[in-house]
Structures are given as C-alpha cells and as structure tokens.
Specification:
Length: 103
C-alpha cells in the first residue's frame, strides 16, 4: 500500500503539469477555401451542420453547382446481355497443375 500512494501522486502531478502546455486546436477550413464559402454557410455552431452543410456532406463534398449537371444527365441503358458461350464442363481445370517441391 505504501508503494501505491507515491505512484498515484506522481501520475497526478504529471497530469496537472501537462495541462498548461496544451494549446487550443486550430481547424483548417479546407472546404471554405475550395468553395469560397464562409464556415457559417455550412455550420450553425461547430461541428453542427445546417441544411446546406448536410447536403454538401451527403453529395460527396460537392456544391449544388457541381451536382446539378450530374443529376440532369440521362442514365445510360444497360448493355444487352451477352449470349452464353458453350463451354466444356471441365474447362475450369488448368492444363498444368501448379506443383513445387522445396528442399
């Protein structure tokens, strides 16, 4: 019990000593720079998103101007199915069986 108390006190002193050295976190507004929007265009209170912010996130981090042309495109019809080629039942077996011996 005598050895536990000094270890706990040492941990507490180390924890208290590191608090003044901590600095505030700085966010990098990469999306604001790329889209020329202010942070408050997508955020109400950081990190909460407003309607534009949720739409921006759900559209793969693209603005509505970037998404509209994609939505207006007509989908391509699927290619016609290829006729099934007649294959030999045993065609999946290779001509040579891989085999090796190590000494």
């Amino acid at each position: 019990m005598k050895h536990v108390m000094p270890a706990a006190v040492a941990r507490l002193l180390v924890a208290i000593g590191t608090i003044p050295g901590a600095s505030s976190a700085e966010a990098i507004p990469a999306f604001a720079r790329r889209t020329q929007f202010g942070c408050n265009a997508c955020h109400t209170l950081y990190p909460q998103l407003n309607r534009l912010g949720r739409d921006f996130r759900d559209n793969g981090f693209r603005t509505p101007d970037e998404v509209e042309p994609l939505l207006r495109r007509k989908p391509q019809p699927p290619p016609p199915p290829q006729p099934a080629a007649e294959e030999d039942f045993w065609s999946f077996i290779p001509g040579q069986i891989p085999f090796s011996i190590q000494a």
